[in-house]
Amino acid sequence: MIEDLSIESERVGLKLNLEKTRVMTNGEKTTIRIRNTEINYTDEYIYLGQLITQKEPMREEVKRRITNSRRRYWSLREAMKDKQLHINIKSKLLNTCVLPVLMYGCQSWTLTREMTNRLATCQYAMERSMLNVKRSDRLKNCVIRNKTRTIDVVR
């Protein structure tokens, strides 16, 4: 099928990039060749922004989303850590620029309690950082959420 795809693609002026092409299967891995180039197998890949994998796909996707959202949050650190910037502006920034990164594709997730807790912990950590509050200050999460007025990712 891949050979046919390659031939038909060339007929309309497209060329299959054999360096980037990978194959994923849940069956037997047999050697696949196109024009004497062997196609490699992969265990996971990103498709339309979502991680496709066979081993614990939801847990891995949630981990990846948390990492990406933290990266996005820290790319905005100048604004988020600015003590003169009003909390409403920081909250809007978190709601519009960071939380969508965290929740991208969440409609298809099947979450466990552990994953839900990880998402909530990530959000509370960012909110604490916005307010310059340390965990040792022992400020309750509900108090923090009342100050920030951000969207609850768990809901």
Task: Please characterize this protein's 3D structure.
- By secondary structure, the protein is mainly alpha-helical.
- It has two domains: 2-42, no CATH class; 54-148, no CATH class.
- It contains six helices and five strands.
- Helix 2 packs parallel to helix 5, helix 4 packs antiparallel against helix 5 (113-131) and helix 5 packs across helix 6.
- It is elongated, with a radius of gyration of 22 Å.
- It starts with a helix and ends in a 7-residue tail after the last helix.
- The mean pLDDT is 92.
- This is (apollo) hypothetical protein.
Write the layout of secondary structure elements.
Layout: H1 2-11, E1 22-23, E2 32-34, E3 37-41, E4 44-47, E5 50-53, H2 57-75, H3 77-80, H4 87-103, H5 113-131, H6 141-148
Parallel strand pairs: 1-3
Antiparallel strand pairs: 2-3, 4-5
Helix pairs in contact: 2-4, 2-5, 4-5, 5-6
In brief, what are we looking at here?
The protein is mainly alpha-helical and 155 residues long.
Uncertain residue segments: none
Spatial strand sequence of the major β-sheet: 1-3-2
Biggest sheet record: 3 strands, mixed
| Number of E-state strands | 5
Following the backbone from N to C, one meets helices and strands in this order, namely HEEEEEHHHHH
The number of helical runs is 6
The domain tally reads 2
Helix content: 40-55%
